[in-house]
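The instructor's notes for this session suggest beginning with a concrete chain rather than abstract definitions. Hand out the sequence below and ask the class to guess, before any prediction is shown, which regions might be ordered.
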Amino acid sequence: MVSPTSKEVFIQGITHAGKTFRPSDWAERLAGVMSSFRPGGAKPGSHLSYSPWCIPTTLNGVKCVVVNSDLRDHEPMAWDFVINFARDNDLQVAEACLLPDPPLPVQR
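After discussion, reveal the predicted structure:
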């Protein structure tokens, strides 16, 4: 399902049948569950922010969760959890790499 060389995986809120996945806040919920899995491990208050390894976003109007492969390397059971969540809910998964935003033009 996911190549071992992928740097990032996008779990998209669209089923393979093309239906929008519900509830509408599924991405935030999934990322919230994964908030304690982060570089250096969970710390007091880490549940108040998303892990850099599992971030909810919207791409082209579709809710997604971007899962970084560092999660697989550091927390294999957490990686399996998010991948199995996608599989169990028949969600589309894409392997990709987020590109940084282009630099802002210099104003003079």
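Then share the key points. The radius of gyration is 15 Å. Helices lie at 26-33, 69-74, 76-88.
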